[in-house]
Amino acid sequence: MSMRRVAVVLAALVGLSACGGERVREAENVARAFLGALADNRTEEACALFGPRVLADEDCAAALEKLTPATIVETEVWGDGAIVRAGSGTLFLSEFNRGWLVTAAGCVDRGEVPYDCAVGGP
User: Fold this and answer.
1) Pairwise CA distance, residues 82 & 75, whole Å
2) Which domains, ranges and CATH numbers included, belong to the chain?
């Protein structure tokens, strides 16, 4: 492979990783806002960060009562989905037209079987 081709490939990879880093920050910022609203009992603000399926399936205030605030440990993004590990639980987010929204919360990793979530589902 020519040096020019190598440089083009490397530039493309750097661009993709920079874009990926921004998406991780965006997803993590939404998770942080959600967890902060949960911790401060700002129900309306927390509910605004739930995805549409969560709000269609259950009452938001009741859903929030099932959750415990936590500190973010790790965030991963793949495609239009994100997983945010916070404390002993996990949040799942999806990217919608209006940005990242929480689609599942209070999830516990059960190893080989799907996560068990207090609210929504991955």
Assistant:
1) 7
2) 3-120 (3.10.450)
